[in-house]
Amino acid sequence: MNDALLLIWEFFKTGLFAIGGGPATIPFLINIANTYPWFSKPELMDMIAISESTPGPVGINMATYAGFKTLGPFGGIVSTLSLTLPSIVIIIIIAKFLEGFQENRTVKAIFGSIKPAVTALIAVAVLNIFEASLIYVENDVTKVRISSIILAIIIFLFLQWDKTKKLHPAIWFLSAAIVGIVLQL
Amino acid sequence: MECLDLFLTFFRIGILTFGGGLTMLPMLKYELVETKKWISEERLLDCYAIGQCTPGIIAVNTATYVGYIKKGVIGGISATLGMISPSILIITIVAMFLNSFMNSPILLHALVGIRGAVCALMLNTVISLAKKSLISKQAIGICLVTLVLALFSPVPTICLIILAGIAGVILDRIQGGKSHE
């Protein structure tokens, strides 16, 4: 089989079986790195770092990157579309089913209790984001990034203030990036 | 026209978000709930829950779901293509100029700042979600149990969501459906 078909097949499989979003695709990508000569494991680690520091969902960024490594720009498009295809089909089937049962008592009961559970899961994920963003290890010593914490607190206070809380979230990313560059954080 | 609107809105969300499906939540809330008023915040959380326990990238699952609610199958596809297009463009460019990009000190300083902003926005979003979803004693109970299990047990996320759904149905049967009226 040629590389393009293999690429479609591998990323289709990843999209179909990786449950839990972007991070869940990493074991599949490791498997691809081990099976094919397309990219190495160290290259994969770079891909993860770059995918996290560029705009867009990390899972999609990694797929585009891996496809690019394999077959150039065309590969990037092919791998990303293959990863997305199972999602589109599955979600449309689920949405079609659920839209007809919006007023159903059991569906209401399920979502009524899934919502607080998801809130808890999001809170846990936020704690993980705090840990990953604010704590780092240097020469085996765990350090706290004080400057990022101060910046986070200032932005959080702005988000509570009536005059600034309705601003587009991207404004905060942009201003924080500028502060980071100017103050050499 | 509506499909173009879906494509452009999700393109904007994709290009302005750093991180995974979760850090996208403040942006989704701003664009879909507050500006476009396409769905309610509660409904967005439903989409999110479904996105988490189905295969694939959560951002894509959410985009497909919202697009489908707005404009059927074509809407779902338009929203998803909008969501993934910025990634394809940006990553292709970055991959071409990898080395000079990764070693740039300006980028590293910018990222330290951006991380602080991500923390602030996420904390704000989770508070807003808690206000909307923790509306009864039962909801608070489910939230606390899930929180403890997620922090201190190895039970996978998807199982926690399914367990919460089952608990909801059982509690509803015990109470005879009163809790939702």
Textual characterization of the structure:
The complex is a heterodimer of chains A (about 180) and B (about 180). Chain A is mainly α and about 180 residues long. Chain A has two domains: about 100 residues, no CATH class; about 80 residues, no CATH class. Helix content of chain A is about 75%, strand content about 5%. Chain A is built from seven helices and two strands, in the order H-H-H-H-H-E-E-H-H. Chain A has a two-stranded antiparallel ribbon with strand order 1-2. In chain A, strand 1 and strand 2 form a beta hairpin. Chain A is globular and about 55 Å long. The relative contact order of chain A is 0.07. Chain B has two domains: about 130 residues, no CATH class; about 50 residues, no CATH class. Chain B has eight helices and no strands. In chain B, about 50% of the residues are buried. Chain B is globular and about 60 Å long. Chain B is mainly alpha-helical and about 180 residues long. Chain B starts with a helix and ends in a 6-residue tail after the last helix.
Unreliable stretches of chain B (pLDDT < 50, length at least 5) are: none
**Total domains of chain A:** 2
Write out the strand line-up for the largest beta sheet of chain A, numbering strands in chain order.
1-2
Helical content band of chain A: over 70%
Mean pLDDT score of chain B, rounded? 86
Number of helical segments with 4 or more residues of chain A = 7
Which outline of chain A best applies? globular
- How many beta-strand segments of chain A? 2
Largest sheet composition of chain A:
2 strands, antiparallel
What's the Cα radius of gyration of chain A?
21 Å
Terminal Cα span of chain A: 49 Å
Query: Which stretches of chain A of 5+ consecutive residues score pLDDT under 50?
Result: none
Order of helices and strands of chain B: HHHHHHHH
Number of helices of chain B: 8
Global morphology of chain B: globular
Strand content of chain B: under 5%
User: Which pair of chains has the greatest number of interface residues, and how are they split between the two chains?
Assistant: A-B, 100 and 104 residues
